[in-house]
Amino acid sequence: MSDRRVRQLRLVVEAEDYEAAVRFYRDVLGLPVEDAFEAPGGAHVTILDAGRATLELANPAQKRYIDEVEVGRPVAPRMRVAFEVDDAQRVTDDLVQAGADVVAPPTETPWRSLNARLDAPAGLHVTVFQELDPPPA
Fold it and tell me: What percent of the chain has pLDDT over 90?
């Protein structure tokens, strides 16, 4: 038995245009379907595998600093979803073609990642980021 109490972080998002949101995150961003369910009354949920999950807690000063570095002004709501990708520019272009709005193009950060900000379906403010340095050995 593990000492870990939490085995998974799952972010649940209500999407008014459910089908468009599923297409965007599944087909364009490339998150594979882990499971999907239907319930009475037209209820639907699709669970997408987003790889490893972390919970990043930042105080207001850090949130402002990240906005300043990545965008140049305060833009993020209280919550932002970040996806690590292999090619931030290509993924940003794909997401824009699929309906996301660029808030800031891919920008190199002081912590050596290439980060883009977008407003995406289901009302999510997202970051796509590409680590520029290889992971430590």
Answer: 88
